Amino acid sequence: MASGSGHDAGGTGTSVVTRFAPSPTGFLHIGGARTALFNWLYARHTGGRYLLRIEDTDRARSTEPAIEAIFDGLDWLGLMGDEPATFQFARSGRHAEVAHALLEAGHAYRCYLTSEELAARRELAQAERRPFRIDSEWRDSSPEAWPADKPYVVRVKAPRDGETTIDDLVQGSITVANAELDDFILLRSDGTPTYMLAVVVDDHDMGVTHVIRGDDHINNAFRQLLIIRGMDAVEGGWPDPAYGHVPLIHGADGAKLSKRHGALGVDAYRDEMGILPEALFNYLLRLGWGHGDDEIISREQAVEWFDIGHVGKGASRFDLAKLQNLNGHYLREADDARLAALVAPRMAGAVDQALLARAMPVLKVRAKNLNELASGAAFLFARRPLAIEDKAAALLTDESRSLLGAVAQRLGMTNDWSLEALEEALKAMAAERGLGLGKLAQPLRAALTGQTTSPGIFDVLVLLGREESLARIDAQALPATAIHD
């Protein structure tokens, strides 16, 4: 029982259809976002379609806020489906229909074993130190033997001998002995379908040709093939999908990614960390896939270059510092008005977005996220009296405050408030006094921003404007006196 693929992995035969199928029990996490990305890219690369399915059969844990969070995260990354999403729970009747078709054809059976009987057999297997396998006496029973009015489940009839091979697009050839496959449940005793059945039926009905997902689903693939091949024998037209099982993402320490590594929802990277969508897109792309030494890869390049066969077999390591550095690159490339609109809500009080946009070229030079941009821009909108940080206050000695008085006097006579004119005036003043420019710039920065770090001092003066700059300097200055070093 070997597995081929009923579809052309290169996309030259049957049109490629991929899908991303999250369970709405929480946020869209990083691993899920990368799975969605790889599915989206493979569909785009091959000229196929990329679909979404919400696997909401766990009614107790599936929530509307979680569904909204998933759609919100996908939309932010530009990974929404090509068609409206399919909701699995709404298709329960269709899932049950397939289970009954398998039952009638002899590829599944009614099992009347009770939970107590199963528990006793499981305990016996543990006591005898052997793996537990379902070995139901109902597997080959005839309808005449079925008890009336007793609950039952519908189990798949797994083969007992031979082996199954999957030629995985990422992992390569994988073979499992059929004896390892159990007679898993298709329909519960209340008639509801299991996840294993629902996934297969939905993939078939949606026309999915390529199942690209985490490698924690490899074992599921062998089980799901039992349903696919059973239905192909029943009615035909159920080809095996091409499987691509992508390694999971680990933390920098090599352990499975968890919250302590930064395994947060995509919304946290956007809202709390101030990451741009194009940066996260690029970073997730490079987690386990590469194109030579290229680190900065545009969306268009990614579509052109991506091939699922080039995804590595080993786990990738999530590196938050690397993501921040990449984000810094995309901040520097981003449109200034767009950045201003993103940064403004992160700032206290009302801000002038036009001024914020004008400041972006000098603010984004060293920033790695939107929060750093907001922090760096805070001085522009601070109200007098300005709050002075301790380190900045230490620069405002009597001597430097007297210098500020002289600076205020010199700049007060300057009508041309341009970068060039201000630089010329302050450099001339420093030269006259035999001072390095830093001797003027450091206390001036403290007076203008309340901080020891800021954009270039001449940029600060221009952005604040003549009136506000002179008012801030005057607030910290002592009357000008002649100072000679």
Automatic annotation (TrEMBL):
ATP binds at residue 259. The keyword Metal-binding does not apply. Keywords: Aminoacyl-tRNA synthetase, ATP-binding, Cytoplasm, Ligase, Nucleotide-binding, Protein biosynthesis. GO terms for biological process: glutamyl-tRNA aminoacylation. GO terms for molecular function: ATP binding; glutamate-tRNA ligase activity; tRNA binding; zinc ion binding. The keyword Chaperone does not apply. PROSITE patterns: AA_TRNA_LIGASE_I. InterPro entries: aa-tRNA-synth_I_cd-bd, aa-tRNA-synth_I_codon-bd_sub2, aa-tRNA-synth_I_CS, aa_tRNA-synth_I_cd-bd_sf, Glu-tRNA-ligase_bac/mito, Glu/Gln-tRNA-synth, Glu/Gln-tRNA-synth_Ib_cat-dom, GluQ/Sye. Residues 338-475 form the Aminoacyl-tRNA synthetase class I anticodon-binding domain. It is found in: Cytoplasm. It comes from the Bacteria. It catalyses: tRNA(Glu) + L-glutamate + ATP = L-glutamyl-tRNA(Glu) + AMP + diphosphate. One of its GO terms (cellular component) is cytosol. Catalyzes the attachment of glutamate to tRNA(Glu) in a two-step reaction: glutamate is first activated by ATP to form Glu-AMP and then transferred to the acceptor end of tRNA(Glu). This is Glutamate--tRNA ligase.
